[in-house]
Amino acid sequence: MRIVLMGPPGAGKGTQAKKLVETYGIPQIATGDILRAAVQEGTALGKKAKEYMERGLLVPDDVITGIVKERLKEIDVEKGFILDGFPRTIPQAESLEKILEEMGVKLDAVINIVVPQDELIERFTGRRVCEICGATYHVKYNPPKQEGICDKCGGRLIVRADDEVKTVEKRIDVYERETKPLIDYYRSKNLLVNIDGNRPIEVVFEEIKGFLRGEG
Ligand code: AP5
Ligand code: MG
């Protein structure tokens, strides 16, 4: 199964991707997570990406495409993958098409998680992430068992660096301008599946699974 998870910042792409990994045993390829790890490690990529991420801007297409191309060479993608946060521009989508063509495979679906803007802000203000394993929580919608501590690894829960309201507003704005056109792009390729993401995490997950089982 080869799928793309799309949707505005805070739509729940990462949350759903993690659940799909557990259910289907295929890897999540999250460009945001790859970049955050590079920033934390202080690599050349990390230093470059940080400037863009801090401002809520997209990292240049060639940089991101190079990362994904390399990642898709790894053996664990043989049975499929979940792309989370990529592609995010038309040029990225076109590059992906070429990469997959070279691999001799095709996308099965692009799942677009739809959430209204006012709800997104609440998701950011309540989001907490584990500084060790990256697990994501929400103080109201998906709280950890013990406040401030990750259920999975015991790590400390922190606020993501780009979750400040001003940066979030910029990210939503960038989404509207640069990423939203992908909805029509994938619709025209008959790959687009809209999922109402403005419902509890488990309900959204059941609907995605239903679609993937062919019930959608
Ligand atoms: P990235 O990390 O991809 O961030 P994003 O797209 O802005 O999305 P988020 O990760 O913020 O949200 P999400 O949809 O994963 O939601 P989550 O599951 O966490 O990218 C960060 C930056 O990296 C970009 O700004 C850019 O600079 C760069 N970058 C990355 N990819 C790039 C690319 N391809 N090209 C160029 N630059 C790139 O959920 C959010 C919160 O809501 C959580 O607290 C969660 O618990 C809660 N929640 C989730 N689902 C629900 C629900 N159904 N109901 C209630 N609460 C929910
Ligand atoms: Mg995410």
CATH third-tier fold name = Rossmann fold
Give the percentage of residues in beta strands.
5-15%
Radius of gyration: 17 Å
CATH architecture: 3-Layer(aba) Sandwich
> Which superfamily, in CATH terms, is the homologous superfamily?
P-loop containing nucleotide triphosphate hydrolases
How are the strands of the biggest sheet laid out side by side?
2-3-1-4-8
Count the domains: 1
Cα shape: globular
The helix tally amounts to 9
* N-C termini distance: 15 Å
Q: Averaging pLDDT over every residue, what do you get?
A: 95
Task: Describe the 3D structure.
It is a single chain. The chain is 48% helix and 15% strand. It has nine helices and eight strands. The protein has helices at residues 13-24, 31-41, 44-54, 61-71, 90-103, 117-126, 165-179, 181-188, 201-212; strands at residues 2-6, 28-30, 81-84, 109-114, 127-130, 136-138, 157-158, 192-196. Strand 5 and strand 6 form a beta hairpin. Helix 2 (31-41) packs across helix 3, helix 4 (61-71) runs parallel beside helix 5 (90-103) and helix 6 packs across helix 7. 31% of the residues are buried. Bound molecules: BIS(adenosine)-5'-pentaphosphate and magnesium ion (MG). Magnesium ion (MG) is lined by residues 13-14, 30, 32, 85.
